[in-house]
Each structure stands twice: as structure tokens, then as C-alpha cells.
Amino acid sequence: MANINIAQNMPADGIEGLQKHWKNDLLAGFMVFLIALPLCLGISRASGFPPISGIFTAIIGGMMVSILGSARMTIKGPAAGLIAIAIGSVEELGTLAKQNGSTDIWIGYKLTLAVIVVASICQIIFGLLRAGKLGDFFPASVVHGMLAAIGIIIISKQFPILLGVKPDVKEPLELLAHIPQFIAKANPMITLIGVISLLIMFTLPLFKHKIIKRIPASLLVLSVAIPLGIFFALYQKHEYIFGGITYLIDPKNYLVQLPASILEGITFPDFSYITSAVSIKYIIMFALVGSIESLLTVKAMDGLDPYHRKSNMNRDLLAVGVGNTVAGLIGGLPMIAEVVRSSANISNGAKTRWANFFHGAFLLVFVAFASTLLSFIPTTALAAMLMFTGYRLASPREFKGMYKVGKEQFIFFFLTMFVTLATDLLIGVIVGVIAKLIFEMVVSPNPLSLFKSSMKVREEGDTIWVDILNPAVFLNYLGYKKSLEALPKGKNLIINFANAKLVDHTFRENLHIFEYDYHLAGGKVEVEGLDYHTPFSEHPLAVMRVGKHKHEKQFTLSARQIDLQRVAHLQHAEFHPEQVYNKLRFKVFPFFKGAKIKKMQNRLIKRGDHQVIDTCDVSFLEADITQHSYEISVLCLHHTRIEMPDFILLKEGLVSKYTEDINFESHPKFSKYYYLKGTDEHAIREFFTEEMLNFLENNTDFEIESRHNTLLIHGAKRVLSAQEIVRLIEFAEGLLGMIEAKVLQEVR
């Protein structure tokens, strides 16, 4: 029943989608353009490319790849994740060419363009060979280690630029070791602009006002840095004295340099070293890392898509390969699906792929007619933006989170990161994967079974039993995934791991994504048999191995949990105090949009013939750089036989008071107190009967969100007492009674 509602509200694609949703997509595309413009310039410089290169890539990604690909919400363009590979290729190939007599200062860049073209052809082949599931293979700890290394590389290389210093060393570890020297040599004028820019990037997300939160931090940085650059006359060559030391200001070193026209910025690749060992190494790195990062981002954005459209990974990989080929041929950076811009695209109300197209079109128009403004952007401001991006990739929270998953996972994470910093990305990833493989072969009773998926399926009516017979690890996940996805949709799927001797972190994380997708298709997934396994840590997604005896967790209940246990007994409900990791379960609801769900616990589950009332405490991190941790009690009411429209019902606030919503003339009290919004107004008006409106007018303690035949109900945004939980359940049961009565009346 849920799928009918989704299909009815699904935005049209193609020209029809443009006609219906161009206003939403135009606004979203403009907001993404504001974010993309400075990032494209900064990523280009950090990669050793001319600043215009990133603009070329974003234009191609927006105006061409958006049409060819299948991902509606992801923004394609240059990304910080490929900076380490790009700058390494430019430097190594440039050195190789100069050793052979080349005097061209851009030779490393031109040779790298040839590498990008060949790597892009590899991506096209990946797409044709249906290698879109490549991103599911690599262990999560290795991928996180790779991204953390990229973050540290970005920070190390941008730090001297932030201070206006030209470093004498190039390697990340050497750059980190020279930080005290960079600080001692800092150009005060440049440093001031850079530090202010960095403070804006870190502090703007701390402001909670809704209007302020919609301002792109990068736009605010430019609005401050450009006037400061003009005030300090960075646009003209001069000297100034500070603290008795003379400093030289040269616009070529401290401002963005662009060609006179966009056509003059076109540069063609040089294929003269394409068969060298260095070129082959970077071809592999661009093709492999670029594909993995892009696929992971598309998968993540599909999860955030309000309409839960699923992208064709193979088609998207093929489209990115075509776009990268064009970009490499005219002087652009390689592109991937980018996280920050894609998230901004969704949060700004994009409906279709045309938002991506518009973002590329805005870039083209701006660079063609207003590029002079870009020449006033201080490079130190771009460095601040990139350092903030690097921090997000390698924040202390990443280290702490991986350590909590398990000490062995932290070892793979740290080993991948350190080897990458000491050598390069390709070697770092290979070492991380090998370390993970060795570990699983050591802890597995039968190492050969790690490479083969094996499961037994039995179907009875609406229930399918799946017995996992071999270890469930990253090595054989693709085989298991293929078999699971081939099962009939809309069933009650029970997956039993009692016979799986080993279940690793990567498999468990991917399994939750499968559960989420299966639920959206109208089915239900239950996991059994893990009680016979011993976890390697207390993390809900820790590696688990079968022990000699059944492993049972012992809980010491708190006073509140004891009260909840009594409530469960009186309500004839199940009580589960243990922590459960199920972050995808709540992502369909706007309340948790963009938040990082950590865990849920203290569940009271009350089952009926066709409905489930499930209350729990949810811990999550707020969706901004502050990452504040919150815990709230919520109730999920799911019904398998009743079709409920998607809507949100909130208490009227300052912003919603001046926003158009669905009102009922016969119930002015309801319309005054509540903000009601949804895509299918007719279905919502039919759903809210007179009895329900009266009920809600007399029970104003709760807010409701409806998605896919599930209601999310919450009151005070905190953990509720046992007595308040009882009140929450009574409210849900009262609501359920009226919904079922309405359905019975319609049947009669």
C-alpha cells in the first residue's frame, strides 16, 4: 500500500519534470551554485590545476552528466576527495617530464589530463561491465581510513597557503612536521584574512536561527574576504612592514588567477608519458577511488532523497566516465558525486535532476560574464574552506567512532590512513584490505568459506526464511546481496545467522541498507540467530563470531527502565532495554532529516493483527558541524492494511505562521494551532476526519509525521518518563482507533 502513495507523488522526470518543478529546481540549483563556485576554485588550486579547471568540470557535471546519469539528487563536480590523487599526479609526472628536459611549467597538469582521460575510459568500461556494485565490496573501516587520510592531506597542504607561506616540502607528513616553521614565517595580512575565513566556516553552523542556517558558509566567507583583500590592496604588487619585517604582496600568489575568457582556459592533454609506470599508477587510482567515492555518495544521497528514488549505479558510473572524458580533454578536473553540494541540493528543495543542470548553467553564465569578480578572491579564503572540508573528513569524531566499533576496526582504519599518508592512496587501500582479509582468515573457523556466499531459502505464504550458511563478510557480501535482492518483495523476511560463524562490520552495515530498501518496497526484515555470537566490542555493529556457548547480554536496569518494564507488562507489550543500531529506520521522516542516528534503546513493542506500536529512545547527532548529541522518545505506529498519506503535523511556529499550509475552515482552532503540510492535499483532507480534528484539538501535546504507512509521533523533545510514555501510547491508540473506524466506514 505504501508504494502506491509514493508513486502518486513521485516527481516526473525529463521535460515533464522541468515543466512542473522548474521553480523548485531553479532555486536549489542557484543555492548549490553559490556553494560550488568557491569550492571549484579552491579544489583546482589545491590539485595543482588552473582555477578554471574546476569550473569546467562542474559545468560538464551539471549540464551534461545530470542528463546522462540516473541519480536525480546528486551533484557532479570536482571534489576534495580527489585532491590527494590529482596533486600527486601533477607533481610526479611534472618531475618526470622535467628530468627529461621539459621546461613547460604546466607539463605536470597536461600529463595528468591524459591520465584523467584514460581513467575515465576505464570508468566507462566499469559501467558497461555493470561494476556499479564496486562500492559495496570495500571494508567500511578501510574506506573511512582512506577518507581520513585525504582530510589530513588537504589540511597539511592548505595550512601554509592559509598563512601566505610557500612551503619547501610537499609530502603530507613533512608538511605536518613543518607547521611551527610555517607559523613563524606567516604573512600577517594574509593570515588575518585566512583565520577570519576559517572562523566563519567553523562558527556559522553554531547559529541556530533558521535564516542564518540557510546561508552558505562559503558565500559569507567570500563576502568578508573579498572586501578585506581590497582593503589590504592584494590586487596590486607592494610591500609592507609589520613587526620590523618586510612582507611582499604579489597578486599572482594571493589572488585567484583566471584567463581573459573561458575559451582561453581550455587546455589539451599531453599523452607523451601515458604508458609510464607513474601514469599507470594514477590511472588506477583515479578510476578506482573516483568510482568508489562517487558510488558511495550516490548511495548515501538515495537514502536522503525524500521520494526514495533508487539510482542505477551502472548507468551513473557510465555517465561520470563520459563526463570525466570530456573534462580531461578540455583541461578539467575529474568529477565525482559530491556530498556537500548534493546534501545542499536536497535540503534546498530540489525535485529533479534539473537542479543539477541549473547549477551548471549558473556557473557557465557567471564565468562567461562576471569572471572579473573571481579575480578578487583571496586564495587564503579558499584554503580555509578546504581545511574545513578536510576537518570534516578527519575529525576526532571519526577516530572515536571507529574505535567504538572495535579495536580491530580501528587498526584497519589507522593502518589505511597512515600508509596512505606515508605512501599514496592506492597502497594505503591495498594494505588496509589485506590487513582486514588476514584478520578474518585468522578468526574464521573455515577461511576458505569467506570467499563464497551460501544461504538456504524457504518460503511459506507471506514469510520467507533465509538461513545464512557461510560467514557473512565483506569478501562475499556482493554474492549475498545479489541473492537477497532476487527474493520476492513485500514479504516478511527472516534472516537467520545462527550458522554463520562470522559476521563482520561491513556486512552488518550494508545489511541495514538492504533492510531499509526492502521496507520501502512494502516488506519487513527481521534478523535472528546473532544471540549465538560473541561481539568483539559493545558497538551494535561490531564484528561477531560464534562462541562455544550462547552469548547473552546482561543488563543492570536503571530506575526508569524498571518503570518502563512495568509499563510494558501492563500494556501487554515487549520491552527491550538493549541498544539497537538501526539508523536507516528513521531517515524517512523529516524530523531526522540530515541527522546522524546513533542508536535506539528502551523499546516497548505492542503488536496487533495488522499494526505495531513501537516506542523507543533515539540518540542522534544534529545535522551540522556542532554535532550536538540529543536523545528523544518517539513512537512509530505502523499499519499494514491502511493507506495513509504522507504529511507533517507540527505546532505552529514563527516561520510556519507565514508559510502556506492546509487549513480547515470548520476547525479554526486546529488551523491556528497546527501547521499541516503534504504533497497530496486531497488525500490529507480525506484522512483528517471531523472526529480526528476534534481529537487533535483536545490533545495538543504531540506532533506527527507520516511516511509510508508509518506515523512518527513525538512530544517534548527529550526522553520521556514512564508516565509520559503511557500517555504517548494512549494518544497513538486513540488516533489508531479513529483511523480504523474510518476505514471500516468506507468499506461499509
| Backbone shape | globular
Describe the sheet with the most strands: 8 strands, antiparallel
The unreliable regions are: 1-8, 548-553, 654-658
Q: Number of DSSP helices?
A: 27
Query: Beta-sheet strand percentage?
Result: 5-15%
Number of domains: 3
- Find the count of extended strands (DSSP E, 2+ residues): 19
Main sheet strand line-up:
12-13-14-15-19-18-16-17
The overall pLDDT average reads 87
Helix content: 40-55%
Helix and strand content put the structural class at alpha+beta
Terminal CA distance reads: 20 Å
* C-alpha Rg (nearest Å): 28 Å
Topology:
Blueprint lengths: L1 H8 L4 H33 L5 H17 L6 E3 L5 H17 L7 H22 L11 H24 L8 H6 L1 H6 L3 H16 L6 H4 L3 H15 L6 E5 L2 E5 L1 H4 L22 H28 L8 H18 L5 E3 H9 L6 H17 L8 H15 L2 H10 L1 H16 L2 H19 L11 E6 L2 E6 L8 H9 L6 E5 L5 E2 L1 H16 L3 E5 L4 E3 L8 E3 L12 H12 L3 E3 L19 E12 L3 E11 L7 E11 L7 E5 L16 H6 E4 L3 H7 L2 H8 L5 E5 L2 E5 L7 H26 L1
Parallel strand pairs: 6-7, 7-9
Antiparallel strand pairs: 1-4, 2-3, 5-6, 8-11, 10-11, 12-13, 13-14, 14-15, 15-19, 16-17, 16-18, 18-19
Helix pairs in contact: 2-3, 2-11, 2-15, 2-16, 2-17, 3-14, 3-16, 4-5, 4-13, 5-13, 5-14, 6-17, 6-19, 6-20, 9-11, 9-17, 13-15, 18-19, 19-20, 23-27
